[in-house]
Amino acid sequence: MKKRILIVDDEEIIRLSLQEWLKDQGYQVETACNSKEAFEKIKGLRPQIIFLDIRLKSENGLDILPEIKKLDLDNEVVMMTAYGDTESTVKSIKLGAYDYINKPFDLQEIDLIINRIINNLELQKKVDIFEKVEKENQFNVEHFIGEHPLMKDVFKKIEILSKNDEVTVLIRGDTGTGKEITASAIHKNSIRKDATMLKINCGSIPHQLIESELFGFEKNAFTGANERKKGLMEIADGGTVFLDEVGEMPMELQTKLLRFLEERKFKRVGGLEDIEVDIRIIAATNKNLEEAIKNKEFREDLYYRLNVVPIILPPLRDRGNDILILANKFLKEFSKKFNKKISGFTKNAEEALLKYYWYGNIRELKNVIERVVLLTDSNEISKENLPLEINNYENLVNKSTNINENELYDNENETRSKIFNDDFSLEDEVEKMEVYYIKIALAYCNNNHTKAAEMLKLSRFSFKRRLEKYL
């Protein structure tokens, strides 16, 4: 279907010449010479793009722009001016205009703006489709969206597993890829959806307490056990238990979990009676279980019991355009939360988001967009609005990969001029690198300072000192 464009200008020669050129590019184009005619055309044409002149004889395009935005249509407005009035163009952006162009027109510039708007509108449309609650939609879970083939395979497995609620599931993927959301999607779309889904992080609870948390205990089973307590397995009867970071489960408890998976029975700590329950186990880990088996840290028979139907969640950096789909979703969410009117990302910002490594995956992306929306006053996110680690990522990668010893000797003068320019400072470069890796570690560890310090091989004191210095 042809994209629809409306041109609003009081100069007939401008309207007709631009209309003919746009028609030659394959667009459906109509024109209007004043606001009354423009609103009539908008109702009938429902244009995706409107080119609006700032000065329309007795009218001001800046007065018409808010009225167009109030219609809440899926369109973007590009302001046109022949006067190079900076104050007016800035005001138009604040009022919701997507961009502005100066007369006489640069047709190549118009073409670039149109393509950018169309891409943004298509991305927003995809986001809106994913947000709709439809009967046939099996994955009505927050932020669980994607178009990449790897994710489509995940969606297909979720659909199959939702219909087969007896099957044990193992979800694997890096931190922040959405393992818990995947588990919730399976549960919420299964016949167990009205029952409880209980979650336990096997890596965050002291080993000596995990067994009693999972299986409960009898009165006087150990010091302090003053009364009988039901465990998660018993409380979740009829529902689902989600074992996050199952790779961190101690070996002695792995044996008891294996027995439960085989018999669907367990004993409370200190108990003699078998308790039979009807629950589904969904486990998740970011650990290399095959390596853990070799190191005698994970039972091989338990691995095969859990790994009946594995779901592998790809890292965000491998999901291509899904990065922009998610970024736009988060942008819309946080713009509403912070009462901002931000239309989207510039092309440079989109390119930077796509090139970045996303060490913390979706969790890191969400945190970045929230921070950017909170700190941005403009109506569009540019590359300069993005955090330093994203802005400088490509340069840092190029610096670390492009310089080798032969180049240093063969192109000594050129290399020296590229690196050691007038702005170069070793202290500044070292500081940038430290800030870069600290932010990555914090994102990867979900802002846990202790874990981030361990990842960076720093003492807590040293890590804290750097935080105070840089951040």
Main sheet, how many strands, which sense, barrel?
5 strands, parallel
In one word, what is the shape? elongated
- End-to-end separation in angstroms reads 50 Å
How much of the sequence lies in strands comes to 5-15%
User: Helicity range of the residues?
Assistant: 40-55%
Give the strand order, joined by hyphens, for the main sheet: 2-1-3-6-7
The assigned structural class equals: alpha/beta
Cα-atom Rg, whole angstroms? 29 Å
What's the layout of helices and strands?
Elements: E1 4-8, H1 12-24, E2 28-32, H2 35-45, E3 49-53, E4 55-56, E5 59-60, H3 61-70, E6 76-81, H4 86-94, E7 99-102, H5 107-131, H6 149-163, E8 169-172, H7 179-188, E9 197-201, H8 207-215, H9 232-235, E10 240-244, H10 251-263, E11 265-266, E12 275-276, E13 280-285, H11 289-294, H12 300-306, E14 309-312, H13 322-337, E15 344-345, H14 347-355, H15 361-375, E16 380-381, H16 388-391, H17 393-402, H18 405-410, H19 412-419, H20 426-444, H21 449-455, H22 460-470
Helix pairs in contact: 5-13, 6-7, 10-12, 13-15, 20-21, 21-22
What does this structure look like?
- This protein has 471 residues and is an alpha/beta fold.
- The protein has 3 domains: 4-131, 3-Layer(aba) Sandwich (Rossmann fold), CATH 3.40.50; 149-314, P-loop containing nucleotide triphosphate hydrolases (Rossmann fold, 3-Layer(aba) Sandwich), CATH 3.40.50; 320-470, Helicase, Ruva Protein, domain 3 (Orthogonal Bundle), CATH 1.10.8.60.
- The protein is 50% helix and 13% strand.
- The protein has 22 helices and 16 strands.
- The protein has helices at 12-24, 35-45, 61-70, 86-94, 107-131, 149-163, 179-188, 207-215, 232-235, 251-263, 289-294, 300-306, 322-337, 347-355, 361-375, 388-391, 393-402, 405-410, 412-419, 426-444, 449-455, 460-470; strands at 4-8, 28-32, 49-53, 55-56, 59-60, 76-81, 99-102, 169-172, 197-201, 240-244, 265-266, 275-276, 280-285, 309-312, 344-345, 380-381.
- The strands form 5 sheets. The chain has a 5-stranded parallel beta sheet with strand order 2-1-3-6-7, with helices on both faces. It has a 5-stranded parallel beta sheet with strand order 9-10-13-8-14.
- Helix 6 (149-163) packs parallel to helix 7 (179-188), helix 10 packs across helix 12 (300-306) and helix 13 (322-337) crosses helix 15 (361-375).
- The protein is elongated.
- The model is unreliable at 131-143 (pLDDT under 50).
